[in-house]
Amino acid sequence: MNRKMKQDTKTLTVNLICQVEGSQRLHSLRALMLSDYGLKDLPADILKHMKSIKTLDFSRNNLTTFPEVTLKTLETLDISENNIDSIDFVKNLPNLKQLMVEGNPNIQTSHKIEAVLKCPSLMKIDGDDLDSIHRQIQHIKEKWKLQVQAKFEVLYEDRFTEDMSEEEFQKAVSEFKAIVRSDDLFASANSETEKIIIEQLVTEVAEEVRSGRHFRSDVQTPQTPRSARLSRKLSATSPKTSATTPKRNKSRNHSSLLDSPTLKMPQSPISPISTPHNRKRRRDSDQGELTQKSKRDRKYSPLTWMMRKNTVVDHDLISLPSVPDYDPVYFLRCHSEGNDPSDEVTKVWRCSFEPSIEDPEKTTNMLATCGGQTVCLIDCNTGKVMKRYKDSNKYECFYTMAWTTVQLNNNRKEKTNLLAVAGQSADIKLVHPSQFVMYATLEGHRKYVSCLTFHPNHPTILFSGSNDRKIIIWDIGIPNMRDYTVLFKKLHVLQAPDTDALNLVLSMPSQTLLAGCEDSCFGWKADNIKKILRDPDYQFYLPTVSSDGESNVSTARETVDGLAALKNGYVVNKCVGDDIISVWNVKDQLSNNDKAHKRKVKAHIRSVGVKPAALLHYTTQDVDYINMGTNKEMMVVGDDSGNLRLYNINELTNRKSKSCDDIMRPSRVLEWPEIAEGPMKQFCQKEVVIVNSACVSHDGEYIACGTDNNLVCVWRQSRDSSEEEMILD
C-alpha cells in the first residue's frame, strides 16, 4: 500500500487486512502488522473474530483507545507512538506476554504497574523485564496489607467460626469487599494503582480465611495486629511467656523476669558500644548460633537480687530535694525475636506511660515499649503484657514512639489515645491501643526515624525527625472507630542543617520547636504551624563545664542525645560524653539573647548562647542515644551501667530563671540489682546493661526503663525505705 493510501486510512477494515495480509480469514490470522497506517479506530467487531492471533502491531498510528475485546491467544501487542491514555484493556488479554506502549504521552510508570496488576501473564513492557515494577508492587502491598488484615479483624473476625456455612462465609466476604471498594475505607489511597492492590489484598485475605490459614480460633498469626495480643492460653500453660507477680511481705520483695525452661546462650552477649568518633545507631545485631541446655539438665533455685543503694556521687555537690526510694518489681523480656527468652541482643529503645484520657496532665499505669519488630503494652500493676504488636517487616526495628489523645468525631464527644511508632523502615505506624490495630502508615522519610512528638495543643499534629536530616510535620487526622478510616497529610518538611534530629520538644511558653541533633541543637518558631520556616530560626550553643565547676557557652558542636520538656518553659538536655545535664528556660534564653546580640550563624539562623538555670551531675560515658523521662516534679535518666539517676526538679522549674554554676547531685541513684545466684544470672550482668530510655508516671508511683540487653524494667515506689532482698521465683 502506498504512502497516500496509508494516510487516507482512518479505521481498521476487513478490506485493509486483506490488502496487507492477503486473506480475509480472520479466525486463522496469527499476526497483523499495521504500523504507521494513520489508524484512529479499531472496531471490536473485527478484532473479536481473531481467534488465533498472537501478534498485533498498531504502532505509530493515531489511536486513543484499544477496544474492550477478549483476545485469549494474543501474546505480543505493540501500540507504541499513539495517543493511548489507558491500558485497562490488558485485563482482557489473559496470555499477553509483551506490551509496547512507549511514545504515548499520557502513559506513565503508574500505568505500567496497573498493566502488570491486571495482566499477570506479562513478562516485558517496552522490552524491559518487570523486576523493578514487581518491587514497587511489593512495596505498596506491604504498605496496605496489615491495614486490610487489621480492618478485616475489626469488622469481621468475630463472624468467622468453624461451623459457618459456605453461604454465610461468602456473604461476609462480599460485604467486606464492598466496604473496601467504597471511597471511605481507604480514602488515603491516592492512586488507581493502590486501589487495585488493595482490591487484590482483600481477595488474598478472603482466600486465606477460606483456606484456614488466617483467623482460626486456635491460632494467632505472628504477622498481623491480631497476633500482637499475647495468647492468654499460652501464657497460662507455657513457662516461655509467663511472668510471676511478686508477693510482697515485710522481709522480702519479689521480682519477675520472663523465663524459659530452655536456656540459649548467645555467642556475643552485646553489640559494640558507639563512641562520639563513630556515632552510628546501635543496632540489634545477629545473635549467631545459639547453644541449648536441656530443661531436664537445669536445677532451679531462688534468684536473689541484692539491692546496693550506696551513693556514687561526690558529697561536695549541692543537694537537690529528696525523692522516694523505689524497688524493682517486674523485669520483662517481651521484645525477643522468636519469643526467645535468652535473646539479649534486641534493644528496647523507648518506653512511655499512656496518658489519661480524662486528664492530660496524668498518666495511666499502662506502659508502651518499643524495640525490634515489636511494640508492647504492659500493665505496671500486674507486670502482664496486655497487648503486643509485631510488624510484618522483618527488617523493622522500632526506635521511637509518641502518645496523643484525640477527640473523636461523634456526637458523644468521646476521646481516645493513639500511639505513633517508627524506626528503621522510615515509615511511621499509627496504632489504636485499645485494639492494638495498626491502622495507618505515614510515608515520607527516606532513612530511619529517630524521634516523634505530638503538639501539646494540637493533638493530631505530629513531628518526626529522621536520619535523612528532615523533620516532617504531619496532620494524622482522627480515625473513624468503626472501620479505622483516616485522612492524614504531610504539612511541612523542615531541614536540620547538615545533621539529623535525635529528640524533638515543643516549648509552649516560647512557641518553639527544639531539635536535639547529632550536631548541635536547633529551634524553629512554631507559633504558626502554617508559616513555619524550612530552615531553623535558632542554633543553641549549650554550656560546657570546666573542672572548677564554672559553666561557659560552648562553641564546639555537641551531640544532643537527650532532650526533654519540663514545666514552665524549662527544658533539660544531655550531650554525649558530658557528665553534666543542663536545665534552661527557652523563653528566657531567647529574650536575653535578643537584648545582648543577634549574631547569625548563616542565612536567618540566629545563634543563642545558653546560660543554664541549673546543672545536674550525671556520669561520664560515651554511649549515645540515652533518653530522659520527666514528670512535673522529677527527671529520670539511665546510664551505661544499668543505673537510674533521679532528680527532683520541682523547685528548679518553679523559681525565676537565672544563670547558675552550682552542680547538683542526683536526689537518688537506683543501682542495677545485683544477681547473687540463680538461672537468670547469666542474662543480667551489670557490666553489659545500658539503659536506653526511662520514664516516670505522673504521680511518681512507677519508673520504667528499656535496656540494651532486651529488658523492660519496672520500679515501684517503695512502701518503706529499708534495704530489702528480692527473690525471683
CATH architecture call of one domain: Alpha-Beta Horseshoe
Give the rounded overall mean pLDDT.
78
- Secondary structure class reads alpha+beta
**Uncertain regions: pLDDT < 50 for 5+ in a row?**
213-280, 285-315, 546-550, 721-729
Tally of helical segments: 10
* Radius of gyration (Å): 31 Å
Organism: Magallana gigas (Pacific oyster)
Keywords: Centromere, Chromatin regulator, Chromosome, Cytoplasm, Cytoskeleton, DNA replication, Kinetochore, Leucine-rich repeat, Nucleus, Repeat, Telomere, WD repeat
Family: Belongs to the LRWD1 family.
Pfam family, one: WD_LRWD1
Description:
This protein is α+β, with helices and mostly antiparallel strands and 729 residues long. Among the domains are: 3-129, Ribonuclease Inhibitor (Leucine-rich repeat, LRR (right-handed beta-alpha superhelix)); 160-219, no CATH class. It is 15% helix and 31% strand. It contains 10 helices and 46 strands. The strands form 11 sheets. It has a 6-stranded mixed β-sheet with strand order 1-2-3-4-5-6. Strand 32 and strand 33 (580-585) form a beta hairpin. The radius of gyration is 31 Å and the shape is elongated. The termini are far apart. The model is unreliable at 213-280, 285-315, 546-550 and 721-729 (pLDDT under 50). It is found in: Chromosome, Centromere, Kinetochore; Chromosome, Telomere; Cytoplasm, Cytoskeleton, Microtubule organizing center, Centrosome; Nucleus. Belongs to the LRWD1 family. Residues 326-716 form the Leucine-rich repeat and WD repeat-containing protein 1 WD domain.
